[in-house]
């Protein structure tokens, strides 16, 4: 659904009136387009460690205009703040304040990205405090940025270099328009697995991807995006959505599989179809889901059970089949669609929140089971996304939901699809068990 308010206040008289009245001023976000530059404007790499030098060298290799020191009044496309060698919270002040001096020079839709180490592996309380301080600093900074700029972080395991494959993959994702609606978030790179694609515009070339719930909305956007990135698509949805499903499958030159994923044999049928029609199976995206909203005081057993059955029990059963299959062994990827409702909760959605919280728990636990095959499993948790469902919300509630995030607008199905496409790629091979919120940094809840 079109956000007419964002369009109105992004330019001309509408922009001037909104500024004078102190109204929210969302801007049209820079989203990925094939052939477009990775980032517009110079990239400032800030930090005194050898890791910062390595990051600057890598960015130069991508053909970017890199600065190690800011030039006066130069508009910056991004700031990459490398904090991989912190030993004490007192070490934060100099690099953070130095970068802070360039915040006013950020261009519209700029990026701020930190690269630091995970607090969980710290060898002392002071190191852990410094590393956790990066978390609080970055999330706060993300709420200060304007004009579509975002701030996100990369957390490295202890032994990893700042230029390990998935660290560079995450850096490229956060710099690009693919991460337009990801703000105030962190991704942990836990291993040196993964590789950067030979062709950046087709990172999924040669892969076969299954997308459930693909007939419309976010699922259809996922199918289109994975196809754009080079994957062959198996589009899955219930028989009642057969016409829409066939249309999506034809559009992406894939195949359609009409299937109720809550059936006991759903996993077997998905594997069988993919192998028979396409010769292999590399990626499974669990997108299918339903809502049956009621206050818990009015919740009946049928509503509760149906949501659990489709949203989480089906994923568990399908994953069990995938993990048993000899056809899902070559660095496979599973990406599940969770929800911010499973993190922060949402009134009237105890069943939905339980199911999406269950998805998050499943993803974290299944990561270890994927390791023997060099596979990964991750989740994305969308916030307010402009879909047919949100278009039916009352106007006042819809407008409030749109503005209650740092970017002051709703996301698009494409934003969810871009995050999934990255997590499904070889560039994310060192990232597993993670939950990436695609919510514009919601201002309420956890």
Write the layout of secondary structure elements.
Layout: H1 4-9, H2 12-21, E1 43-46, H3 50-61, E2 66-67, E3 76-82, H4 93-100, E4 106-117, H5 125-142, E5 150-156, H6 165-175, E6 186-189, E7 208-212, H7 217-228, E8 232-237, H8 242-251, E9 255-258, H9 266-278, E10 283-286, H10 301-324, E11 333-337, H11 341-344, H12 350-370, E12 376-382, H13 388-391, H14 395-403, H15 413-423, E13 435-438
Parallel strand pairs: 1-2, 1-3, 3-4, 4-5, 5-6, 7-8, 7-10, 8-9, 10-11, 11-12, 12-13
Helix pairs in contact: 7-15, 9-10, 10-12
Quick structural overview:
This protein is of the alpha/beta class. The protein has helices at residues 4-9, 12-21, 50-61, 93-100, 125-142, 165-175, 217-228, 242-251, 266-278, 301-324, 341-344, 350-370, 388-391, 395-403, 413-423; strands at 43-46, 66-67, 76-82, 106-117, 150-156, 186-189, 208-212, 232-237, 255-258, 283-286, 333-337, 376-382, 435-438.
Quick one: overall form?
A: globular
Report the uncertain regions.
none
Task: State the fourth-level CATH superfamily of the largest domain.
Answer: NAD(P)-binding Rossmann-like Domain
Tally the helices: 15
In CATH, the architecture of the largest domain is: 3-Layer(aba) Sandwich
Order of helices and strands: HHEHEEHEHEHEEHEHEHEHEHHEHHHE
Class per helix and strand makeup? alpha/beta
Number of domains: 2
Strand order of the largest sheet: 9-8-7-10-11-12-13
The main sheet comes to: 7 strands, parallel
**CATH fold naming of the largest domain:** Rossmann fold
Strand content: 15-25%
Q: Can you count the beta strands?
A: 13
* Helix proportion: 25-40%
- Radius of gyration over C-alpha positions, nearest whole angstrom: 22 Å
Mean pLDDT: 94
Which CATH class of the largest domain? Alpha Beta
Distance between termini? 27 Å
